[in-house]
Amino acid sequence: MLPVLASVLSATLLGITGRVVRVEVDVAPGLPGFTIVGLPDAALSEARERVRGALRNAGFHHPPRRITVNLAPAEVRKAGASLDLAIALGILLGSEQLRAGPGRAGVIGELGLGGEVRRVPGVLPMCLALAACGVRRVIVPADAAREADLAPGLEVVGVGTVAEAAEAVRAARSRRTRPVPLPRMDALADTGPSVTTTIAGQPLSPDVRVVDLADVRGQAVARRALEIALAGSHAMLLVGPPGAGKTLLARAIPGLLPDLDDRAALAATVVASAASEEPVEALVRRPPVRTPHHTTSYAGMVGGGPRLSPGEVSLADQGVLVCDELPEFDRDVLEALRQPLEDGSVSVVRVGRAATFPARFTFIAAMNPCPCGQFGSADRACSCPPGVPDRYLRRISGPLRDRIDLWVSVDRVPPAVLLGRTPPEASSVVAARIALARRLQRQRTGETPNGRIAGRQLRRVCRMEPATLARAVLLAEREGLSGRGTDRLLRVARTIADLQGCAQVERAHLDEAARFRAPVDRSARREAV
Amino acid sequence: MLGVGPRGPLGRSDPEPVGGPAARRAGSPRDATQDVATRALAIPDAGTRTLRGFAAAEREAWVVLAGTEGVGPVTFSRLLAAYGSAQAVLAAASSRGATADLVAASRGQDGSSPTLAPAAARALAVSAAAPELLLEPVRRSGVLVIALAEEGYPARLRAIELPPPVIFLHGAPDSLGRARSVAIVGTRRPTAQGRAMAGRIGEAVAGLGATVVSGLALGIDGSAHAAAVRLGTPTVAVIGGGHDRLYPAGHRSLARAIVDGGGAVLSEFPPDTQPTRGTFPRRNRIISGLADATVVVEAGARSGALTTAAWALEQGRSLHLVPGRPDDPTVAGCLAFLREAGPDARIVAGIPELLEDLGYLRSVALDPRQAGWPSGDLAPVEREVAIHLAAGRGSVDELVDATGAAPATVLGALTSLEIRGLALETFGRYRPAGSLAASGRPPVRIPVVHRGSRAPHAA
Predict the structure, then answer these.
(1) Strand, helix or coil at B49?
(2) How far is A295 from chain B, CA to nearest CA, in Å?
(3) Phi and psi torsions of B244, nearest 5°
(4) Residue of B254, B410, B427 with shortest CB distance to A409
(5) C-alpha to C-alpha distance for B214 and B265, rounded to whole angstroms
(6) Sign of the C-alpha dihedral, residues A441, A444, A445, A451?
(7) pLDDT tens, position by position, A460-512
(8) CATH of domain A213-425
(9) A382-434 pLDDT, tens per residue?
């Protein structure tokens, strides 16, 4: 038997991006051995044992020869078990137990010793990467077939065992064609499954009920701020004593967000696919709402760890990141929020590897005004020593505070209001305004929401009548606003105008926006003059 | 008595039974103040209140003697009376075996027990032997020194019982002797409303040309000082330690602003004195002593501001306390004081009322229909919000409920009112300000022109 060089296309996951890997298998005469080269990690090195067991137990022959597996490109570190199936098929091809049909297929899957093919995380991004390389046909684990189907333009073959996979290779038909550009999303709507309302990953623990705003009495300012925040993707911070209803408001968020459009849905699904142990069954249409606890570690928030997994900021991509008890988070974790708030992405760098994760979330945070929680409340006294409430606020660094567009003081709702005559608006009414505002923003600035507009673009979208401009100048001067503060005022006013469907920012919008200013008088509590 | 021990605030640092306001109130009549001042000086030609030939050497001796640990105002005056001059006291202290003599000299004229502890007498011997130890820090820190025997010593302070023999200050000495002077004190842990009230009172009195005197503490004190600084009026901060150990450190920039604004930061302690628990109650008598009137804004049951209040009454100055709800712990001290002090302590019923009580304004009844309230060219919704705001509805929720307007509209209207100076916000709650705050259509008050530039206490 002549030595044969076999080559199979597969992919690994780096962060949340698929990387195409060419698996080259050389079955040569010599002392029996099995070597994998090309910077495999521990899980990948163990593929030798899984492949050997799987082939034998699936009724194939594991040739007693010198087997060398090369993973190209050689200088990229590869991780995970997604290449198992490709290696096994490469051995079968290399030892001529299998002859490939015409055309090429991408192969993804982990092997069990019994020959069964198992799902790996990130099948969707890997398929997208293969598709971008011109592959038209993928062989994937059967339970990830629907997930792979979400990648447009691919023929998906789900396989449960090595034998089925070998059969699929033998029958391979599609020819390598010219590379297709990354999916056109409007086409995706047809090929993808119908819109679902399942919430991606585990954004909210199942026992958390989604609250309708009709059930939230009082808190007019906080409700309004939440509406503005979600409409324009503005970072918002609620400051108020325990019992003021901060958590209740946070629970209303899922009911206020419109479905994701196709592009955003695919992005959210990619993240869910890479992060989730469970197969993703359908496009994630509902924006994720992540509520990390304040004990969350740096890697948990930003991403990282041995597998370079996405963190909470990326799991909240296209959705909302809710941080309760903000000052209780580790300082490092808080500082790490600055980059995603500014750029909409976060980079994680490890030795030899770097990944950039998307992190286009709306940031909603809440905190007590001081450690005891009562500072500034109308009906109870604060028991903190002098100066402590200030230091508490200063745990949130200046640069992070600068990125918060909406500051809201909340207090416990007085009984008169709880029993008052004004009926609160329902979530559906507010959600309609939010959807309108988002549509207007998309028409104007595409992917960039008002919350991330700055500089010249901001001036352009906030063009005002001379009288309105004078009002803006007056407000900025009165509050002693910095350049950043003025930008915040304009951004928020722009969103308020969008919520009303107004093309131009008007005086009333500015006046309302001014109410959500950062509490300057608090940071100057030491009577700086 | 409230916040003052049986031996008075000075009892802590001086072993002598000087008798604070509490102890005094029982027996001594009000006019004792004058006697004590004279006795404290104990200078033969006290009629001029200025020591003839008060040379630089004697001045330094005053600083050394007053700066020696364990020598308080009473001991100082007794030793001065016994030896004739501070230099003579130091000369005696530096001779061998003078301890007993010094202790004996600190006995009162009525034979009361000596106020100089033997340890303090030994400390005095050390001071006398090495005066530079005390003088050097004073020179280094660049503070001004004013001795009780000098012309520049503030007249109001000279008039109190136990005036400090020497005061140290940064800033303008003439800020201590202005015609009007009001002390504003209170808790270091105020509510937002208390802080704002202190600021408004500070602005009101400073606006009428009064010096605001306070203790530079966090909270009410700081707000009062800051209000005066904002208006560019001199304000005087009396600190409870030395200038080089400025406390609280967080108010360092405020202290600088006070000095830059023509005010003064003053202490009876040499610049290198570390503030301690005992030094603060003791300096409180200087706060009230530098002012014609003391205003207390928010004091809890054990607040140090109550010591200042007690001293004010003791010194024969007027006292005004801002009241509050009986179940509010932040004003418990004020209410208890009002109840116990009787008619001497006045209630602050409002800022115009306070100014009237201080004699800075007099009221003239005016036809309420001419007041035109709420004033200004307000939009209908703004007027609506203003009326409800003045009626005490302070949260946006309440205003939304009362006006029936959309929250967005109410928020915009509040910005408008704020710009016109008719509303103020803290922690999401709003309260009326400016003409809107004077909600009861009160009589118009006109300023009283003060004649003469010297303080009323100047003899």
Answers:
(1) coil
(2) 28
(3) -80, -10
(4) B427
(5) 10
(6) negative
(7) 898 899 999 999 998 888 777 778 888 999 999 999 999 999 999 999 999 99
(8) 3.40.50.300
(9) 888 887 888 888 888 888 888 899 999 888 887 777 776 667 889 999 999 99
Alpha-carbon distance values, A94 to A73, A97, A135, A333 (Å): 20, 8, 21, 49
On chain B, the residues whose CB falls within 8 A of the CB of A473 are none
Task: Tell me which residues of chain A have a C-beta less than 8 Å from any C-beta of chain B.
Answer: 218-221, 223-224, 239-240, 369, 375-378, 381-382, 384-387, 408-411, 413-414, 416-417, 420-422, 474-475, 478, 496, 508, 511-512, 514-515, 519, 521, 526-529
The minimum CA-CA distance between A342 and chain B, rounded to whole Å, is 27
Chain B nearest-CA distance from A39, in A, is 57
CA distance A430 to B180: 58
Tally of CA atoms within 13 A in the half-sphere of A154 that contains its CB: 36
Which B residues 160-199 touch A at CB under 8 Å?
188-189, 191-192
Residues A395/A367, Cβ–Cβ less than 8 Å: no
Residue reference for tokens 């008598």 = B285
Mean pLDDT of A122-139: 91
Q: Residue A214 carries which DSSP code?
A: G
With CB atoms and an 8 Å threshold, state whether A527 touches B226.
yes
Question: Is B254 an 8 Å CB contact of chain A?
Answer: yes
Q: How many CA atoms lie within 13 A of B217 on its CB side?
A: 25
- All CATH 3.30.230.10 domain ranges of chain A, comma separated, are 4-183
**Residue A234 · residue A406 · CB < 8 Å:** yes
**Is residue B251 within 8 angstroms of chain A, CB to CB?**
yes
What secondary structure letter does DSSP report for B449?
A: P
Q: CA B68 to CA B78: how far, in whole Å?
A: 15
Among candidate residues B164, B161, B160, the one with its CA nearest the CA of residue B73: B164
Domains of chain B: 40-141 (no CATH), 168-363 (3.40.50.450), 371-436 (1.10.10.10)
Using a CB-CB distance cutoff of 8 angstroms, which residues of chain A are in contact with residue B189? Answer: 382, 384-386
Domain A4-183: which topology? Ribosomal Protein S5; domain 2 (3.30.230)
pLDDT above 60 (res B373): no
- At B436, the pLDDT band (50, 70, 90 cuts) reads confident
The strand pairing partners of B346, in sequence order, are B320
Which pLDDT band, with edges at 50, 70 and 90, does B53 fall under? low
CATH of domain A453-523: 1.10.8
Please give, rounded to a whole number of angstroms, the shortest distance from the CA of B187 to a CA of chain A.
Answer: 9
Tokens of B343: 């008619």
Yes or no, beta carbons of B189 and A386 under 8 Å apart: yes
Domain with CATH 3.40.50.300 in chain A: 213-425
The share of chain A scoring above pLDDT 90, in percent, equals 42
Question: Is A512's CB within 8 Å of B225's CB?
Answer: no
Residue A526 and residue B250: Cβ atoms within 8 Å?
A: yes
> What is the C-alpha separation between A231 and A233, in angstroms, rounded?
6
Strands (DSSP E) found in B302-408: 318-321, 345-347, 361-364
Q: Which two tokens stand for residue A6?
A: 């076999």
Is B223 an 8 Å CB contact of chain A?
Answer: yes
Q: Using one digit for the tens of pLDDT, what is the confidence trace for B55-76?
A: 788 889 999 999 998 888 889 9
From the number of C-beta atoms within 10 Å of its C-beta (0-12, 13-18, 19+), residue A59 rates as: exposed
ipTM greater than 0.85:
no
Q: Say how far apart CA B346 and CA B354 lie, in whole Å.
A: 9
Contacts of B219 in chain A (CB under 8 A): 386
Instruction: Give me the helix-helix angle, A483-500 and A466-478, nearest 10°.
Output: 130
CB spacing of A220 vs B188 below 8 angstroms = no
* Chain A touched by B408 (CB under 8 Å): yes
Q: What is the pLDDT of residue A385?
A: 84
